[in-house]
Each structure stands twice: as structure tokens, then as C-alpha cells.
Amino acid sequence: MSITLNRRHALLAGAGALAASFAPAARAAGGFPDKPIQVLIPTGEGGGVDQAARAFNRIWAKYVGANFEYSYFPGASGQVGYEVFVSKREPDAYNILFGNIGPEMIMYATQKVKYKYPEDFVYLGSMDVDDSVIWVGSNSKFKTIQDLVAEGKKREITLSTSRLPHPSTIGALALAEATGIKVRMIPYGGGGPARSAAITGEVDGCATFLSSSLGLGEQARFLTVFNETNRAPELTNNAPPVNQALGTKIPPMSGQRAIAIHAKAVEAYPDRVKKLSDTFKQVFADPDYKAVAEKAGTPWEFIQYGDAASCQQSAKEFVALADRYRSLLTATK
Prior knowledge:
Radius of gyration: 20 Å
Structural class: alpha/beta
Number of strands: 12
Distance between the termini: 4 Å
Strand content: 15-25%
Largest sheet: 6 strands, mixed
């Protein structure tokens, strides 16, 4: 398998435009919203993003004053959903996309897409930070990340992943580059199949986001976390950060589930967008949100509000990471 990458220089264009667009309204909001808000999810129904979106929106509905309706457009690592959103959904602030900045901006930078960021859409706010990890099934002979690295110097290690354009893919390939091991990434088209492959031993391990695997309990043994600290050591058999364990200098590889909105909506309806932004932030102070977030599978330690500016910075950083590790991604089989 191979990946074709295309440099996206447009990302830097319009930096700061989102903040500036929150100036006094060009049009009156009226009774906005006076009908349900449509949520497009660029992954499958029932997945991690869907569950997180529904948990968040259950609380958000109290503040924004509207219900939410959902549609799903999985495919091409999120590309299908984004293209439907940009080209077929009205830019009226009644349509939002709920996605994941990390993998979807890597997808943007590594696939031939039919839209541009930030000209066509912008992220309005993010709700969590979820770090990439490598874990193995409980029956695996690998007890530590050092064990896996030692084996990888003898033979090719196979790691499952939900989709190839993903922070965990870059993390695993950067690990291979730093340690001299051989790694083959195998995409399974979804988190469930990727996790099953690692549990059953079909592959040596799984590279994914931390929160998506916490429910596996004793079926998984975490080997390392791609960040400077482990946010949930008690839930991950105290797996060490990769740089601490191996003396590497791999940058953090995280995801941020976030909402996106049409850039045209920001320009035409800044008052509506401001209401969405303000009420989005209110959710994090609601005591009920902790319970629904954890029930949906996101530990409270991962919940973290991010504003539009931080989302834009994160998006830029992931495009830069995809470019930095372009040769490794291209070499993936």
C-alpha cells in the first residue's frame, strides 16, 4: 500500500481570519437557532467520534437552545464527509461538522481533496486531547516498548490502525526511524477491527488513540504513549512516554475532537457563529458534562476546551507533521 501526498500551502493563508470574523454582526441573528442543528460526522455511526458528539451535544443543547440531528459519511479517512460538508451543506451556521483535527488534517495533507483549509471551513472549538499509543494483546510476548523495539530489529513489526492518515501512524513510523526498527502499518477501516486484530494476535500490536482502547481492560497491554506524560497511568498499566522510555525526540501525537463550520458562514453570519462558539464553551463548566463524557468513553482527564485560535494552530501543526514525515508515509507498504 502507498500514500500519495500533496503539499498544501493554503493553510497559512487567512491566519487570524476566524478571530477577526467575530466582529459586529453583518446580519441579525433573529431567533437563531429556530430549528435543529445538522451535524455531519465523517466517520461511521456508533464510533468514538459519534459517541463523543452525542454526549457533548446532549449538554450543548441546553445552552444553544436547539436539538441536533446527525448524518454520517465515512470513507477515505474522512475525506468523503468533509467534501460532502463543504460542497453540499448550506453555509448558514445550521450545519456543522464534528470531526477529529489530528487525523483529518493529516488526511487533508496526504490525499487529493476537493476543498481548502481554511478557505472552505474552520474549526470553531475542540473538546478534548487524546494521545496516540501503542498497545499489544494480553497474550503478546511483548511486555514493554523496549521488547517490541528489540524484536523490530530482527523482523518487521505489524501494527494495526483505524486509518492510515493518523497521528498514531506518524508516531509509529517516527519510532521506527528513531530506533532503526521495521514497522508495517495495516489500516483496518475502523477502530473496532483494528483493535480486534491486535487482541487476536493477527498483528503484533495496535497504534491508535488512548481513549478508544481504555474499555478493553485486561485484553490490552499498553506499551507507550506519544506525549511527554501519560494522562491516565492507572488505566494504562503505567505505560511510559516514548521519549522517556527510549531517549527519542518524537513530538506529541494527539487528536482533538472538534466542530467545524463553513468559512462562508463565519463571514455571513458572525452573530450566529458567535452564539455557537459562546455556548460551546459553556458546556465545559456544566457539572453534568463529566458524567455523560465518561459514560461515552472519554476520561475526564482528556476533556479540555480549545478555542478557534488553538484549533487553527493545531491544524497547522498537523499539516506540518504530515509534511515532515512525508518520506516515511510514502514508504509505508
